[in-house]
Automatic annotation (TrEMBL):
Cited SUPFAM superfamilies: FAD-linked reductases, C-terminal domain, FAD/NAD(P)-binding domain
A single GO molecular function term of this UniProt record: oxidoreductase activity
Protein name, entry field: FAD-dependent oxidoreductase
Organism of this sequence: Paracidobacterium acidisoli
Coiled coil: none
Keyword GTP-binding: no
InterPro entries, alphabetized: FAD-dep_OxRdtase (IPR006076), FAD/NAD-bd_sf (IPR036188)
GO cellular component, one term: cytoplasm
Keyword Oxidoreductase (UniProt): yes
Length: 375
């Protein structure tokens, strides 16, 4: 009732003079970071979230700001470095507006790899084991990255609260059903009625390619499921940095809690957790870091990463007034501030600080559907 009334007020304002400047579909980290950046630029922003804000992939994530992960696609580097540079300001703004603290949980990552890039120094085995007592290198090279992590659940209340405090109208439980360009703007059809705006941003995560938000554009963003688990270890066991290999990661959250992930599965929108896969993940993690042997599992969950064929996001204007900010796959927590900045620049008609050609939606044109073989 309250939400319907609020939207009616917005619609009435539109009918008179002040329609929304920007409507955003999706209140994950990408939609809300973008909303905050646009509101801070003085725009009237309305976000529609069909469920609860920050409850999908952005809730499930490990929270590594893995901008220097050697496994990342090279084309992600510039956007990653910008996002890392923007992160302190992003968190400070959320803290200022929400009154909540978002602590960094770790400040370094011990990265194992079979192919160490030339610009990274391989640690001696003893150096790596000193950083992670109980580490079994298994013949891999390890290097130490100055890479931070946070707990995305710390953002779960704080980011929506910050966006609201900045003036964003966030409507939870309201889905976007259709979007049309028309006249001098965009008409957004929602489950609570239509709304007009100058711009629409599709930030619907793994659902961004569905007809309700894609506005007729071909947008091959698909869910890539990740199962994860958390264990608790006795206080004397200490791992102060993230421990990561191409196969898995162990992320200390503090207080003896360690998050371990993750599977990468193409199973549609299924979020079921399978004990056999969780057990296999824990067994692999315990082979890498022996203090995990016999560890007590305290939580399991799964999330749907928004995936694209090349592992890169889509940050683009796909039709007049219609933009996409989706497909951030394994790095959406990292990339949120830079994505928000890029969308703000596109909407403001300014040249983006980062070259966005690798993130255009039309790079998939002519791509064959993996299942049907149709172009
Ligand atoms: C297991 C796992 C581990 C991860 N670890 C990391 C990590 O360590 N570091 C990192 O940077 N990233 C990580 N990620 C990736 C990261 O979580 C995602 O890239 C990021 O959360 C994507 O954010 P988003 O806002 O696009 O999507 P989401 O958080 O999924 O938000 C999209 C929102 O859109 C809403 N929506 C969908 N359709 C509609 C509609 N029609 N109308 C209105 N709302 C709609 C959904 O309900 C949802 O709330 C991980 C992901 C997983 C699953």
């Amino acid at each position: 009732m309250w939400q319907t009334l609020r939207i009616e007020i917005v619609i009435q304002r539109n009918e008179t003079a002040t329609r929304a400047d920007v409507v955003i579909a999706g209140a994950g980290i990408i939609g809300l970071a973008t909303a905050l950046a646009l509101a801070d630029a003085g725009l009237h922003v309305v976000v529609f979230e069909r469920g609860t804000a920050m409850s999908e992939s952005s809730w499930a994530a490990a929270g590594m700001l893995a901008g220097c992960d050697p496994e990342n696609p090279a084309a992600l580097r510039e956007l990653s470095l910008l996002s890392l540079a923007l992160y302190p300001e992003f968190l400070a703004r959320i803290e200022e507006l929400s009154g909540e603290t978002i602590p960094l949980r770790t400040r370094q990552t011990l990265q194992g790899t079979d192919h160490l890039p030339f610009d990274l120094r391989a640690l001696k085995a003893a150096e790596a084991e000193a950083l992670a007592p109980g580490l079994r290198t298994g013949g891999q090279s390890f290097t130490l990255l100055d890479e931070h992590s946070l707990d995305p659940r710390d953002l779960g209340q704080a980011l929506p609260a910050a966006a609201r405090a900045a003036g964003v109208e966030l409507h939870e439980g309201v889905a976007v059903n259709a979007v049309h360009s028309g006249g001098d703007g965009v008409v957004v059809e929602t489950t609570a009625g239509p709304l007009t705006a100058r711009h629409f941003v599709n930030a619907a995560g793994a659902w961004a390619g569905s007809p309700g938000t894609s506005a007729g554009a071909s947008l091959p963003v698909a869910p890539r499921k990740g199962q994860m688990l958390a264990v608790e270890l006795p206080g004397e066991v200490q791992l102060r940095c993230v421990l990561r290999t191409p196969e898995l990661y162990i992320v200390p959250r503090g207080g003896g809690r360690y998050v371990i992930g993750a599977t990468v599965e193409d199973l549609g929108f299924d979020k079921q957790v399978f004990p056999a896969q969780i057990d296999a993940l824990l067994a692999s993690a315990a082979t890498l870091w022996t203090p995990l042997r016999g560890a007590r599992i305290v939580e399991t969950w799964a999330g749907l990463r928004p995936g694209t064929a090349d592992g890169l996001p889509v940050i683009d204007r796909v039709a007049p007034g219609i933009l996409v900010a989706a497909g951030h796959f394994r790095n959406g927590i990292l990339l949120a501030p830079a994505t928000a900045r890029a969308v703000r620049e596109l909407i403001g008609g300014r040249r983006p600080a980062v070259e966005l050609s690798a993130f255009r939606a039309n790079r998939f044109d002519g791509m064959k559907d993996a299942e049907t073989g149709q172009a």
